[in-house]
Amino acid sequence: MTQARVSGSPACRGGFYRRCRVDDDPIRKFDRWYREEAARNSLSDIVALATSTREGAPSVRIVLFKGLSAGAFVFFTNYRSRKAADLAANPQAALAFYWPVPPRQVRVEGSVEILPPPESDAYWATRPRESQLGALASDQSSPIPNRSVLDQRLRELEETFRGREIPRPAHWGGYRLLARRVEFWEGRAGRLHDRVLFERVGEGWTRTLIAP
User: CB burial class (10 A; 0-12, 13-18, 19+) of residue 164?
Assistant: First the structure.
């Protein structure tokens, strides 16, 4: 693992610079933090996803992080949803992870592209059957007259696919966010938190300490 030494700096006392060693690769650093959190918190995959329209009107919602694909951050949704419409018009987005114990936050910004169909197919096959049916029953973000419409669609789909595998619908699948900025925040006493910003430059990254 490539690491940068910062010996002689007061930051070596703790936070990001424990043992005076820092990762040069933010994706690897994120993966380590995420795995540590997943080992103790079943809600570690909850993340806020921010998108915007072509005109720049923002929208944010909670989604589930579904791992890294070739160093990019993956999530799944209905391609007809509001977030999908935003991403079609403006394929830029941001993610914000927050884990309270120990207090840590990771912010990710970058471009977004649709995940290759085989990867979406592979994930779809792992979803519980009720989640597959739910994805088919819901025309996400579209108006409905009442809840019973969804219940009726679900009953019809249960009958249609009784005893059969449910194929992934073409309007549902994954996205991956290719990070160009990744910021790590770790809480410290007196609100003098640690913050480190990584920015993509060519095939590598720059790393900058920033004030809390």
Answer: exposed
Sign of the Cα pseudo-torsion (38, 134, 123, 86, in order): negative
Task: List Cβ<8 Å contacts ≥24 apart for 156-160.
Answer: 157/133, 158/133
Catalytic, 162? Answer: no
| pTM greater than 0.90 | no
Query: Can you list the domains of the chain with their CATH numbers?
Result: 3-127+168-209 (2.30.110.10)
Helix (H) / strand (E) containing 173: strand 172-186
C-alpha span between 76 and 139 (Å, rounded): 15
Mean pLDDT of 33-53: 97
Cα→Cα distances 179→48, 71, 185, 195, Å: 15, 8, 16, 17
Name all contacts of 165-168 with Cβ < 8 Å and 24+ positions apart. 166/129, 166/132, 166/133, 166/136, 168/120, 168/121, 168/124, 168/125
CA dihedral angle for residue 164, residue 74, residue 71, residue 114, rounded to 10 degrees: 80
Looking at residue 34, the DSSP 8-state letter turns out to be: H
Instruction: Read off the pLDDT of each residue in 8-15 and give the average, rounded to a whole number.
Output: 42
Which one of the listed residues 191, 195, 200, 207 is annotated catalytic?
A: 191
